[in-house]
User: What shape does this take?
Amino acid sequence: MKKVCILGAGSWGTALSIVLCGNGHDVRVWSIDPEEVRMLMDFREHRDKLPGVMIPSSIEFTTDMEYALEEANMVVCAVPSTFVRTTMKSAAPYLKENTIVVDVAKGIEEDTLCTMTEIIKQECPQVKAGILSGPSHAEEVGRGIPTTIVAGAYEKEVAEYIQDTFMNDYFRVYTSPDVIGIELGGSLKNVIALAAGIVDGLGFGDNTKAALMTRGVTEIMRLVVALGGSMETVAGLSGIGDLIVTCTSKHSRNRNAGFLIGQGKSYQEAMDEVKMIVEGVYSAKAALAFAHKMNVSMPIVEAVNQVLFEGVDAREASIKLLLRDRTRESHNLNW
Assistant: This one.
């Protein structure tokens, strides 16, 4: 049995707490919100974000970060990506040397272009950082629906430790050394999912959405490879796998927000209606900045930024994508 602390009591943090508790671990969950903690303790259910999913009585909830982190063998950072830096800065004094910290947030920090594991290492240099990512909606994981995911870390033993801690008969975990590929796949697919939702909101068809998802994979692959990641990772769970579920699922906050934007709402109105943080909105600017920095062509990401932040009409942006100069599908293939 391991002592595991989860920082963040949203839908994903709550679902993972159920997985870990079911695996026999001692689980404490921290939240900055006293009302959220009271709800979880009183009702053993996250009524706002995971209604109907009952939480085992042995899982503790607290607003006391020092207590939550006490003697933890593993820490799971499950706050939204925009709060990872401040949360890890607060946690740093209570984290022991070589504690394994697993990021499950998906995003790129807009100002610094840091990934989440880079932020963790900057704020908590004494820990060993890893990542858990893949097609895994909390609404299904919390109910024990079969799910497959990938654990990434720079050290093999760290990835295997994460794998051993999380894996069970419905939550299968693979390992990978390609941390940058996993992180970029998880972040960029949210931007493509916004575009997929916009396509749905505009009333376009399956042909359009399939094309957008496929070309979205190409854009993700270009940036991943430019930054030293692997094409194989993009073709795996944290790339195509996560892209498929986020672009198509009823549970996807990014796809749902995109749908509302396609119907004419602003990104802020869409986020307010979805009532959850839409990571793709925050990753879109960072993705475009990365593309410019690495001189990588990402026209879909550019179009999403234009719609979100420059007031460009979504239908007009879609037509511009279709009317770009004719080109080959792959520049790696020759006649």
